[in-house]
Amino acid sequence: MFKGILIDKDDAGYRAAVQAIDEAGLPEGDVTVRIDWSTLNYKDGLAITGKSPVVRKFPMVPGIDFAGTVAESTHPGWKAGDRVVLNGWGVGETHWGGLAQVARVRGDWLVPLPAAFTPRQAMAVGTAGYTAMLCVLALERHGVRPADGDILVTGANGGVGGVAIAVLAQLGYRVVASTGRPAEAEHLKALGAAEVIDRAELAAPGRPLGKERWAGVVDAVGSHTLANACAATKYRGAVAACGLAQGMDFPATVAPFILRSLTLYGIDSVMAPQSVRREAWTRLARDLDPAKLEAITAEIGLDQAIAAAGELLAGKVRGRLVVDVNR
Q: FRET partner for 126 with CA separation of 20 to 30 A, picked from 7, 91, 274, 299?
């Protein structure tokens, strides 16, 4: 038996509870992992509360991330004792996930835990930080360099935003952070933001084409914010879009793409190939200051995760929440 959050849905309704789970019920997979740490992402909050149809199969253990140690493996790439990280691949949606003490998964989904990170630090990074790194890599591949001008990071107080700011600043970029919590300006500057703007500047319907302000953008918000970010990106600039906190719509025109040769990169972290994942984790180990990571990290136990899910969706959580699944 092991402890985990189990979500179920039947005639009695939708519910999530921490309970003892029989290991015999674990799904198919060729690697069994004893989990040390997980984390609480926005998608996990939606799954636990049922506010969006994230969970596709019931019962389901939520948690799209985990870090731990291989207990058993029939996969050629892994052996007992290996330290591993998992992000995405439908875990916590269609396959039991990381908000538990044990997981059984396909070995092809795992990546090695970088030596630079403890399991707790890896989960402070989590899908949010790994996605932020994918956005940075997209801007770099496009050719955006620090000398080209400011980089806008939207949703700056979220997990993606915090890691993006820290990494970009470490790499020498001047970062402008957009947030709906102006009281957090000093915190964002401590992470590396050179300037903080109110999200109201970007959140309402805007002009099809605005003044050129950004050489590149990391956007975790979507909707009007993404449209306005595109409208104000410099000629031949790039926008990396990875989130939809404001909405799934994109109320924009083709003007920035045609008149300024803008490129919009869609960033998917869930199904990214192994080569991309390993590159992102290698770069995070090199380019993310552990002290700045700790500054955006708070810790909770598994028993607190259900209540924290609601707070996360309500925008009351700054940065990253790591979950100690063993308390």
A: 7
Average pLDDT score, the chain: 96
Provide the pLDDT confidence category of residue 72 given band limits of 50, 70 and 90. very high
Q: What's residue 317's pLDDT?
A: 86
28 has pLDDT over 90:
yes
E-strand spans in the chain?
2-10, 13-21, 31-40, 65-73, 83-87, 102-105, 110-112, 151-153, 175-179, 193-198, 214-219, 233-241, 263-266, 297-301, 320-324
CA distance 196 to 179: 7
Distance CA 170, CA 284 (A): 11
Domains and CATH numbers, the chain: 2-113+296-324 (3.90.180.10), 127-266 (3.40.50.720)
Looking at the DSSP assignment, which residues form a beta bridge with residue 51? none
* Separation between Cα atoms, residue 16 and residue 59, nearest integer Å: 10
> What CA–CA distances, in Å, run from 308 to 41, 189, 312, 318, 321?
10, 26, 6, 12, 9
pTM for this structure?
0.94
Q: Which of 169, 173, 265, 153 is nearest to 219 (CA)?
A: 153
Residue appearing with tokens 């092991």: 2
Residues 6+ apart with CB under 8 A from 110: 31, 33, 77, 78, 84, 85, 86
232 near 260, Cβ under 8 Å? no
Would you say 251 and 223 are in contact if contact means Cβ atoms under 8 Å apart?
Answer: yes
At residue 238, does pLDDT exceed 90?
yes
- Give the distance from CA 69 to its chain's centroid: 22
Q: Residue 291, Cα to own-chain centre: how many angstroms?
A: 19
